[in-house]
Amino acid sequence: MNNDVSAALHRSQLIDLTTTGRRSKLPRRIEIFLHDEDGVLFITGMPRRDRTRDWIHNITADPNVIVHLKKGIEADVPATARVITDPHEARPLIEAAARRWRRDDVDDMIAHSPLIVLTAATAPAA
Q1: Which of 23, 39, 47, 55 sits most deeply, having the most CB atoms within 10 A of its CB?
Q2: DSSP string covering the chain, please?
Q3: Gap between the terminal Cα atoms of the chain
Q4: What InterPro entries does this protein map onto (predicted)?
Q5: Is residue 65 within 8 Å of 49, Cβ to Cβ?
Q6: Which regions of the chain are under pLDDT 50?
Q7: SS3 of 73-108
Q8: pLDDT tens digits, residue range 7-37?
Q9: Against a cut of 0.70, is the pTM above it?
Q10: What per-residue confidence (pLDDT) applies to 6?
């Protein structure tokens, strides 16, 4: 991955994320916010008690994803996603997202928000 893409990847921004459908095996693309906190790339969302997001189910079945950068630099970056369920591991990341979003319900977010950490591959997809 070149330096420009790497730098762009580590700017918190709106991206598209492609997962593989757990049943259909087809690509599923969503628009979502990518966070960077001290070099850790992660994605979270608003708390929801009633269900787990489809993209979390998809990542649980297949952790290989594509991060589509679309602001400034356009690039498709393969990555591996890891679903975070440990509240102690989640807390610093959720706190960072809560600060950005000016939320004060960190405990609710830890209990009910989806959270993944991304590890980018070394080269962009073609």
Answers
A1: 55
A2: --HHHHHHHTS-EEEEEEEE-TTT--EEEEEEEEEEETTEEEEE----SS---HHHHHHHH--EEEEEE-SSS-EEEEEEEEE---HHHHHHHHHHHHHHHT---HHHHHHHS-EEEEEE-SS---
A3: 12
A4: F420H2_quin_Rdtase, Split_barrel_FMN-bd
A5: no
A6: 124, 126
A7: CCEEEEEEEEECCCHHHHHHHHHHHHHHHCCCCHHH
A8: 888 887 899 999 999 999 999 999 999 999 9
A9: yes
A10: 85
Question: Under 8 Å CB-to-CB from 87, ≥6 apart: which residues?
Answer: 110, 111
Distances (CA, A) of 87 to 50, 66, 96: 19, 26, 14
Structure tokens at 49: 């008690």
